[in-house]
Design a protein that fits this description.
The protein has twelve helices and ten strands. The protein has 314 residues and is α/β, with parallel strands linked by helices.
């Protein structure tokens, strides 16, 4: 009897994880490749990266009954068409493949193929709601125009509040001392350095300072964190109205902070379920591939995947 497989891809601007597994979750092949996002590189570079990786599993191609490629930026209509054309050229699967945002991987890794939300809060932030298999984005407009609840916004609030206290415009706050300790120089001197560096990343690095100061009971930090959390909560309520669900999968470093979760939840009424996925995002891509194949996922599937994934890391 011919074996059947599902194929999952999780791609971004630095690397791509590809997993081929049996329909019971046991991994047959695990491939690491370079960046596959079309942001910042040419389409031909993406094609070359994917072809080199997928050539390694050509012998299994006829047995693949479902494939999902969740890649950063692939949720955009124009990019999705480009990716589908690439796969059609280099790894044709005729109706057994779909391409979408890497947010789908994260969502599926937490709640499977059900309707729900994924809230991403790292340097940037956005929320995706899934309803009947269709993904809807809320926010994610970048640090200049949106990204409410992001690490950048938290870090900016920490620095701005510290500077306002330094100016005497606002009350004294632990944030001034803590920001200076982090940057290793007087804050007034550090400001000029920010404008010579990658400001977005540098400012986002101060997010833990705001969270720590709020946890220590600093009035200004608590006020600023509450305001940032309110923005994320509003995005979640909007996404919940779209998805009809209050299940939220959490992604990004900011959500690892218990106090951040606490402040966001304080702005949400009713029962909400927050989930931090245990398995790698590529697991979510495999789950989506199982959905394409019309197959259900059970506990045994997850156990087999986790065991064989870890074995492959040894």
């Amino acid at each position: 009897m011919e074996r059947k497989y599902v194929l999952g891809l999780d791609g971004g601007g630095t690397k791509t994880d590809i997993v081929l597994c049996q329909t019971d979750g046991q991994i047959v092949a695990k491939i690491k490749a370079g960046p596959s996002s079309m942001t910042g590189q040419r389409v031909e570079a993406v094609r070359s990266c994917l072809q080199e990786a997928l050539d390694k599993i050509i012998p299994y191609k006829e047995g693949v009954i479902g494939c999902f490629a969740g890649i950063s930026g692939a949720g955009l209509t124009a990019n999705r068409k480009r990716y589908l054309q690439i796969f059609s050229d280099i790894f044709p699967l005729e109706g057994r493949i779909d391409v979408g945002s890497d947010a789908v991987n994260m969502l599926c890794s937490g709640i499977g193929n059900r309707d729900g939300m994924v809230a991403i809060a790292g340097t940037g932030a956005c929320v995706y709601a899934r309803k009947a298999g269709v993904m809807h984005r809320v926010d994610g407009w970048g640090y200049l125009l949106g990204d409410r609840g992001s690490g950048f916004m938290l870090g900016r609030r920490a620095l701005v509040s510290a500077l306002r206290a330094l100016d005497g415009v606002d009350k004294k706050t632990l944030l001034t001392e803590m920001c200076e300790k982090k940057c290793g120089m007087p804050l007034a001197d550090f400001v000029s350095e920010i404008y010579r560096m990658n400001a977005k990343t540098v400012i986002a690095d101060f997010a833990p300072v705001l969270l720590e100061a709020a946890g220590a009971g600093d009035e200004i930090a608590m006020r600023e964190l509450d305001d940032v959390a309110a923005g994320m909560a509003e995005n979640l309520r909007t996404a919940a109205a779209i998805s009809g669900s209050r299940e939220v999968v959490l992604g990004g470093s900011v959500w690892k902070s218990g106090i951040y979760q606490q402040y966001v939840k304080a702005h949400l009424n009713g029962e909400w379920r927050f989930t931090l996925p245990k398995l790698a995002p590529v697991y979510g891509a495999v789950i989506a591939a199982m959905g394409i194949a019309g197959l259900a996922v059970d506990c045994t599937f997850a156990e087999n995947f986790e065991r064989t994934y870890q074995e492959g890391n040894k």
